[in-house]
Amino acid sequence: MNIASIDIGTNTVILLIAEITENKISKLLNEFRIPRIGKGLIPGGRINEEKINEFLNIMLDYKSIINQYKCEKIFAIATNAFRIASNSQEILNLIKTKTGIVIEIISGELEAEFSFLGVISDLTNLNSNVLVIDIGGGSTELILGRSDKIIFKKSFYAGVVTGSEIFFKHDPPLNNEIIDYVEYLKIIFKEVKIPSQVKTIAIAGTPTTLACIQKGLSYYNEDNVEGAILKIKDIKMLSDELKHLSSKQISDKYKEIVIGRNDVLLAGTIVLYEIMKLLNLSEVTVSTKGIRYGVIYKNINPNYTP
Fold first, then answer.
1. What per-residue string of b and e applies to 172-186 under the rule 16 or more CB within 10 Å gives b?
2. How many CB atoms lie within 10 A of CB 305?
3. Where in the chain is CATH 3.30.420.150?
4. Pick from 33, 28, 27: which is nearest to 13 by CA?
5. Interatomic CA distance for residues 71 and 273, integer angstroms
6. pLDDT digit string, tens, across residues 191-207
7. Cα separation of 243 and 246, whole Å?
């Protein structure tokens, strides 16, 4: 059986086509688009018409791909941008009318759960605790758990798009803008406590992009990125470099790797570094899995109760 899973974020819209055999998720296709639906969006504001049209075209394209793979089920979930926009339901109604795809807006807590399940869907013999860091466009989720239980999960209003738009008014940002951003992150993450010696896995665009840069890749390759190790000293070095580069300079230097992320990569790198520093983490393992895998995992394991 083939299943389609669509993760609709503030910055990206990602499609996973997977084959399910004996409760195992086997990737057939991953498609990425970066429309930045949440550009300029504030809580209670409206997603603008240009972004709605771009999103509709992506969903029409995805529906065509889904039909080609003869998927028996389609899961589509929307996160922070749709949680805070005042015209979310209008957009969901439009997508349903034009494509037949029903989109569910999920809470930050459920987003965290799906992120965690996406990661463990690819792990075996997970008997010890694992911490998952999911740095999205509009929010960041931290989840601590193991294969049979989620111990802690929380969604924080600190995403790469929101952070960049709220704090960075210059390109590259001024030093005081970076200081203010770091102080904000310290405040919102200060409540987080985790056991020592926990395996930490980072997912989403920031860690995968940093892994590509570290490996010197000229284009994104999921197989080369999966399982990459990012050490805190290397993240600090990349953060210090990015602080002094404009978004254009970042594009010129890293080219295809940073398309759609060149102006938000610094914000995400700072989030990852500050979380690691706060929790005394020396390194994180990068995973290309995430929400879209977690949605399928929960569907094929209905008795899982975190």
1. bbeeeebeebbebbe
2. 8
3. 123-286
4. 33
5. 39
6. 888 877 788 999 998 99
7. 8
Structural tokens at position 295: 């949605």
Spatial separation of the C-alpha atoms in residues 109 and 154, rounded to whole Å: 6
pTM of the predicted model, to two decimals? 0.86
Nearest to 225 by CA among 233, 213, 235: 213
Helix residue ranges per DSSP H, 47-107: 49-68, 80-84, 88-99
The CATH number of domain 123-286, selected from 3.30.420.150, 3.30.70.20, 3.30.160.60, 2.60.40.10: 3.30.420.150
d(CA 55, CA 49): 10
Q: Alpha-carbon distance 225 to 204, whole Å? A: 11
* Homologous superfamily of 2-106: ATPase, nucleotide binding domain (3.30.420.40)
Residues near 65 by beta carbon (within 8 Å), at least 6 away in sequence: 15, 17, 29, 31
Find out whether the peptide bond into 195 is cis, omega within 30 degrees of 0.
Answer: no
Q: Identify any residues that bridge with 301 across adjacent strands, giving them in sequence order.
A: none
Q: What is the pLDDT of residues 136-172, one digit of tens each?
A: 888 899 999 887 788 888 889 889 999 999 999 999 9
Contact 140, 133 (CB under 8 A): yes
φ, ψ dihedrals at 186, nearest 5° = -60, -40
Phi, psi of 256 (to 5 degrees): -60, -30
Residues of the chain with CATH 3.30.420.40: 2-106
Parallel, antiparallel, or unpaired: how do β-strands 13-21 and 2-8 relate? antiparallel
Confirm if 37 and 8 have CB atoms less than 8 A apart.
Answer: yes
